[in-house]
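2024-03-11 09:14:02 INFO worker-7 job=invfold-0412 stage=load source=structure_tokens
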């Protein structure tokens, strides 16, 4: 299957617009959704100025609807294994404002 950056950027837009999530939305779903932003960074290094603008626009929406946390949402083990850091992978160090309880909840918990 051929993936296009536009598909990932559109998905990122939907994810950002959906915050705050309904009560049935689980942390594991959030983790999977946030991986979309990683894919944009890692798989599509070369981007058009128009797409870069759109990414920045939705990043700003995401930032406005989330809070910065000290821990990686994937947990310390995954953070070390995948070399995540709060500067490069800033989206893994944020949770929705309405879901502060996720801060200390390990992945795989509902």
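2024-03-11 09:14:09 INFO worker-7 stage=emit residues=110
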């Amino acid at each position: 299957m051929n993936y296009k950056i536009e598909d990932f950027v559109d998905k990122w837009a939907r994810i950002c617009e959906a915050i705050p999530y309904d009560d049935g939305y689980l942390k594991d779903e959030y983790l999977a959704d946030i991986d979309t932003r990683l894919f944009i960074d890692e798989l599509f290094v070369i981007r058009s100025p128009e797409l870069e603008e759109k990414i920045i626009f939705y990043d700003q929406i995401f930032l406005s609807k989330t809070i910065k946390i000290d821990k990686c949402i994937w947990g310390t083990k995954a953070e070390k294994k995948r070399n995540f850091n709060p500067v490069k992978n800033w989206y893994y160090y944020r949770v929705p404002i309405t879901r502060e309880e996720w801060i200390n909840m390990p992945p795989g918990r509902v």
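2024-03-11 09:14:09 INFO worker-7 stage=report msg="The mean pLDDT is 87."
2024-03-11 09:14:10 INFO worker-7 job finished
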